[in-house]
Amino acid sequence: MIGLTGGIGSGKSLAAQYFAELGAFVIDADQLAREAIERGSKGFDEVVSIFGDSVLLNGDVNRSALAELVFKDSSLKLKLEGIIHPYVKKKFESAVSSLKDNEVLVYEIPLLVETKSQDRFDLVVTVESEYETRVERLRSRGMAKSEIDARIASQATRQEREDVADFLIENTGSEDELLRQVENIWDSIIETF
Ligand code: ATP
């Protein structure tokens, strides 16, 4: 069981994709959190009853509007977490129990340090890259600079992630360089276990 973390825009998802290509069973905490409140789900109905129709856009939950609301109000944040967390936990546990012998689970979990989840994993990998590169990647995804800075400030620091990590991926070069680092970690995991 590998916990894969890193700051926003550091390259976690791409690293996770490479782990999957090498044979890992990958799940993504953010993806599960999206599923928890997608249209037609119980979570969706709960979100609408708490936050009202104003958080909907074309019939779906507008996740950035929701994020903005809970970012400013910690009691609303707790309510939203009360909807999302039980679903994510259930899905994570069911993935763990479906693992086959010798299968490696990689769980992409951005807020590993913030949720003190490191002890749930045999190994922790953190993906880090420079501030400017992250800003550039996130801006090309349409995020405003002020939003990016607020998110980075709300997350654990690079040092805090490195303190709990067994492996550090420095995603400061090309995609190939990232792949090579993932391959090295994969080889050493396979050797160790
Ligand atoms: P988030 O925290 O928002 O989920 P993330 O850490 O999962 O982000 P990715 O989605 O993997 O980050 O990467 C952000 C963007 O940067 C993606 O478009 C990805 O393809 C690109 N990217 C990541 N690493 C590299 C790299 N080494 N070279 C070029 N592009 C990269």
Automatic annotation (TrEMBL):
Keyword Nucleotide-binding (UniProt): yes
Originating organism: freshwater metagenome
Name recorded for this polypeptide: Unannotated protein
Entry-linked PANTHER family: BIFUNCTIONAL COENZYME A SYNTHASE-RELATED, DEPHOSPHO-COA KINASE-RELATED
GO biological process, one term: coenzyme A biosynthetic process
GO terms, molecular function: ATP binding; dephospho-CoA kinase activity
Keywords in alphabetical order: ATP-binding, Nucleotide-binding
Keyword Nucleotide-binding among record annotations: yes
Residue intervals passing through the bilayer: none
